[in-house]
Amino acid sequence: MRATKALLTCWLVLVLLSSLGVAQLRTAAARHNLFVGTAVNNDAFNNTSGEPLYRPTLAREYNMVVAENIMKFDALEPAQNQFNFAPADALVAFAQANGMVVRGHNLIWHNQIPNWLQNGNFNRTQLIAIMQNHITTVMRHFAGKVIAWDVVNEAISDNNGNPNPLRTSLWFNGIGADYITMAFQFARQADPTAKLYYNDYNIEGSGGKPDAAFQLVSGLKAQGLIDGIGWQMHQINPFTISSANQSNATRLQNLGLELSMTELDIRMQLPDDSTKQQQQASSYSSVVNFCLAQPACVAIVTWGFTDKFSWIPGTFSGFGDALPFDMNYQPKPAYTAFLNALGGSAPPAAPTNLVASPGNAQVQLTWTASSGATSYNVKRATVSGGPFTLAGTSTTTSFTDTGLTNGTTFFYVVSAVNANGESANSAQVSATPSAGTANFTLSAAPNTLTVNQGASGTSTISIARTNFTGAVTLSATGLPSGVTASFNTSPTTANSSVLTLSASATATTGAATVTITGTGGGLTNTTTIALTVGMGGTNNGGVTITPVVASSSNFFNEEDVRVANTQNVTAMSVTIVIQRTTGISSSGQYNTIGNGVTQGISSTSATITDTFNFTGTLTPGSGRIFAAQTSGTGTAHPTAGDTWSVTYTTGGQSFTQTGHF
Ligand code: G3I
Hints:
alpha/beta, disordered N terminus, 15 helices
């Protein structure tokens, strides 16, 4: 039986090598002249954007497909003698394009019978004609394209022969037990080249149902009407092939039938865990090893391949994860066990730490080696997420992609390859090549700014770009308490952003250096603003001036300016102007601060002016005295006409207070 497949297998291997690159299960299976297949979920198959890994995984791993639903009676003949082949034709075309063969599932079954047929009250003659027409039309349509058909599916009762070995169904009830033989006769006539199968579940071991199946196929084989038997193999984890399976396979084989595992899945009770996954891996190994040991076993078909699309959770509550690939299309231990049992080995793991660095019309890529990899495929796309095309291969852990368009962003993934196949893709990275090194600088205008309490001020932050078009995120640090910063746009791809610094009514006054930081494209740059927070406009900066006439007699006069301050004063000038009445002249001046004060006296015929200039820091305190002294010859001085003026700086803001004595 294997020999009959030899030519077909050679063709398969050629198609594989030429069109698919490195394949996995199917490559290993082909060495055994074995078909490895899966049921195809039509929704996932057609959702190429939503399920971008469905078709590539299918084509990479399998050399046989079977339609999970779209080649059943209700799908192909939804109205009497009106056939809908389009969806199945699309699957067949995909299979042919990818060097895969197709199993036909199924022609006659008690399930998924269209309403027109189920409710048609057809008599025996009519039912036979309907059956013949369906089988003939379908098989002729797919002749040469479907290598094997499940002609009759699940015809044997689960009741161990009670009341009879066959399941009651539309076909059994309407035609009688010989509907099965008729179906196989019609099938043989319709396409003599197709392998004809009887397919069922729970017929794999020993007992009433396997025995009934054996009797059934024995009779059909004696008439030359059947070529194979399909063991569905819907199993529960953990599963191990038993001696009963072996005895049954041997007796079927001795009939001259070929054997296919047609709907293999090994469901586990959820939640999944690593122990169950290992058990499941052993279970899959057991089935694969068994099949390889049977000369008659020609195919292992799983009922789906990714746990994302499986009939199990919808039918067996609390069970799932029955297939070799997980919900994300990643191979599970079951997959590795499957592959290892076929004598294949797993491909390397995907590369990690992929980094892309842009250059002039090129992008340099580096990554961390994958153990066992002999080369790497570097794949590029101009859209995030792909589709990716091969940009080149490398036997090292770097690659320079040249000849690129500056200013265009390119997306990359890398996969690792060895003799066993190709890994999944690495995480994606991107880079935008440009003529020079990408950078930007920041500047602030103005870069000194005074903002009073309760007010705000602005500065324009300019972003000077060199080969850099990316977004820059701006932030401000070093803000005094009570001062907030906002940018009119951040992140920004523009060349400037306006910074607003707002001081609350109680913001801390004084000088501060505000640092503006821009980040983008992996770059960080800064500029600074010298900020002064001034006192609010309605107060005196916490400085109280008290004019005091300390002495006023016929012979001596002293007028003081006394200062009290509640916060640091950084500059102060005091001016006292004395009227120069007849006989009056200056007799001195003093202050109680001392260090940092420069004193001076100037006189005209009308005034005597005492000045005091302080520089330094006058910490909070009171009773600081600036005194102007005069003396004369006998007339009391009219002090009310004398004036004072004090100008000082506190909290970065200048104030002036004036008055008279
Ligand atoms: O197509 C209709 C859709 O139009 C409707 O909206 C939807 C609502 O439920 O139903 C859709 O049909 C479903 C069909 O799958 C296609 O998705 C049916 O309800 C659903 O019952 C049917 O289930 C299939 C089942 O056979 C039917 O018995 C499973 O997908 C399929 O995996 C399963 O496969 C069978 C094999 O053919 C024979 N051996 C057992 C195996 C598992 O039950």
